[in-house]
Write a structure and sequence with these properties.
With 283 residues, the chain is α/β, with parallel strands linked by helices. Helices cover 41% and strands 14% of the residues. An eight-stranded parallel beta sheet has the order 7-6-5-4-3-2-1-8. β3, α3 and β4 form a beta-alpha-beta unit. α1 packs parallel to α2 and α3 packs parallel to α4. The longest helix has 25 residues. 41% of the residues are buried. The model has no long low-confidence stretch (mean pLDDT 95).
């Protein structure tokens, strides 16, 4: 899509990431992001060889709740994030995307607190020192995101990563750009079907990460909101090849070759970009 930089998340349930980067380039994507592992420099080298942009690294997130608790593993969880910041900087990646919290059921017993703010302050201070931007993502536990965004509101290195699918399930459809759109520095664009349970209870099974236009997302509204925020950065898509346990919405993607799947993702990404451009012209 002309004048729009489209990026796609690496998948960790198929071929080697270095091979994926090459396929992304051949299909037409501008860049990519990966999770955190010990091969960030290799991914960077691969990107440089084929002219791809290494847009961001997703920080480890399975222990983010520990940063708000005084438990034995808290220090180790914090140090893992500090290593992620350092390794991302060493690999020349400009943004680290981080969750503020994890644990849908557990958040009823956890609350934002000074200890958690202190732990995240170490991470932000390291990011400032290493010239890395930290983009906090909307997930479950909106109160933890709110606490961090408020505490670091005057730190230019701290911004917001908008996950459109998460908004539809973990955030009950609340408009996250109305809260943090003025600090939007990264996107995780994906479709979803909202909350499946009739009683409104959310589980990780609701977080499908479908291709755009395979769910119920209003992509005109999504692109309108990006434009209202003045966001003109990369459009980065985070999509899942596999269905969640007991669900089958993503099964059809597995029936495609990986190249066919990436090509379809690119076509959908171009459609989103075209909507954004059209809506911006009409404003």
């Amino acid at each position: 899509m002309q004048n729009t930089e489209l990026c796609l998340a690496a998948h960790y349930d198929c071929m080697d990431v270095t091979e994926q980067i090459k396929i992304y380039h051949d299909v037409g994507f501008y860049g990519f992001f990966t999770g955190y592992d010990k091969r960030l420099s290799l991914y960077r080298e691969t990107a440089e060889k084929c002219g791809m942009y290494y847009q961001s690294v997703h920080a480890p997130y399975v222990r983010m709740n520990l940063l708000w608790r005084d438990v034995a593993d808290t220090e180790d969880a914090k140090n893992e994030l500090l290593r992620c910041i350092d390794d991302s900087a060493d690999a020349g990646v400009p943004i680290v995307v981080a969750h503020a919290y994890i644990g849908i059921g557990e958040k009823k017993t956890d609350v934002p607190n000074d200890m958690g703010i202190s732990n995240f302050s170490y991470i932000v201070e390291r990011a400032v020192k290493r010239n890395i931007k930290v983009a906090f993502e909307n997930t479950e536990g909106e109160e933890f995101l709110e606490a961090l965004m408020k505490h670091f509101e005057n730190i230019p290195n701290v911004g917001f990563c908008w996950d459109t699918g998460h908004e539809m399930c973990y955030n009950h459809g609340n408009d996250m750009t109305a809260l943090y759109g003025n600090r939007l520095i990264a996107t995780h664009l994906n479709d979803n079907l909202g909350i499946r349970s009739f009683d409104g209870n959310i589980t990780f099974l609701d977080d499908l990460h479908l291709l755009p236009f395979d769910g119920i997302a209003d992509w005109k509204d999504i692109t309108d909101r990006m434009n209202r925020c003045g966001y003109d950065g990369e459009l980065t898509f985070e999509l899942n090849l596999n269905s969640k346990p007991g669900r089958h919405e993503n099964d059809k993607y597995r029936r495609l070759s990986f190249e066919e799947y990436v090509s379809e993702a690119y076509a959908r990404a171009c459609k989103v970009a075209a909507l954004k451009q059209k809506n911006n012209i009409q404003r």
